[in-house]
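Before the break, one more example. Copy the sequence into your notebook; we will annotate it together after we see the structure.
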Amino acid sequence: MFIYQLKETSILRSFITPVGRDDMLDIEIDAYIHCVSAFIKLAQSEYQLLTEIIPEHHQKKTFDSLIQESLDNLMIEGDNIVSAARKAIMRHDYSAVLTIFPILRHLKQTKPEFDQVLQGTAASTKNKLPSLITSMETTGAKALEHFADNIKNNPDKEYNMPKDGTVHELTSNAILFLQQLLDFQETAGAMLASQETSSSASSYSSEFSRRLLSTYICKVLGNLQLNLLSKSKVYEDPALSAIFLLNNYNYILKSLEKSELIQLVAVTQKTAERSYRELIEQQILTYQCSWLKVTDYISDKNLPVFQPGVKLKDKERQVIKERFKGFNDGLEELCKIQKAWAIPDTEQRDNIRHAQKTIVEETYATFLNRYGSVPFTKNPEKYIKYRVEQVGEMIEKLFDTSA
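Here is what the structure looks like once it is written out:
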């Protein structure tokens, strides 16, 4: 008989790790999904067999009684999964909560079959699956809400900030979580919709759910941006802060573009791509400002104009010496510091190097052409330490500890 097929000590326990261990990651989700499908098939077969041997007026009540233990075991396992998910939320293990999604999707897909096979049973029996679905939707929606809040409130700690300004772990984790949601867009959207009113999420259109999911993703990205901006202030060097934000914004943008996330974001935020590109450009400009303390030494500002053949005054010679020395020292210092910084994106790194190289080389070439042959010192090699191409080579080694 069917009652022996899905007892707590048989198929469920043989495939599912007891969730009392508070370890959601050990649960065999596929096993539970197969158990749900098996219950439906076996219940259908059981009812067919029952109609052949039980008088018609006793069939529904008998069937209701026969399936109770197996159905209860199935629901208990579902409740245990929900309980484990709640514990995962409490310890901020949001990836573990994702195990609810495939189960919930399967339960909602099989609900019509459930309803059909249980149509003659008591109301309490019929309500068990809808109750489990509601519980999973509520827990899942709460997990999504807590995840968004956690992204916003993740603390700024100097010890866990990347020393080289690379992508923060919070950014990669947040994007990974959002990418994993892509496999369950309809389910996640329905979760969010279920919390809008007391009505079932199924009463909403898929487009409504999609808009809710888009709004949610934009909220997470907005919270992430605010948190990154706060974290960037941990750096004392504004240029390193800019590199940090540049790397993270670029990582977010590239990740969005490589997945369907960008399409989801665009449902409610049409200009998201452009906004990220503008943010990236702002950080590049901020970074380039760090080189002004180098190029200002060799700019035309406040430099005297020397007439050919006219002997330089001591003060004028000293000005030129200071300009060369200031440039040399600044160049060496910045190259040493920024060589240890990181820009993981090869294209972005090359573009920033090239732009900075062009600016510095052109400014230095003009300065060198104007004052390199001026007799301002008896030891020109002490001040004219670098050729233009050597300066370019030094800048080419920025953001590369192996160079």
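Residues 1-26 have pLDDT under 50 and may be disordered. DSSP finds 18 helices and no strands in the chain. Try to locate both features in your own notes.
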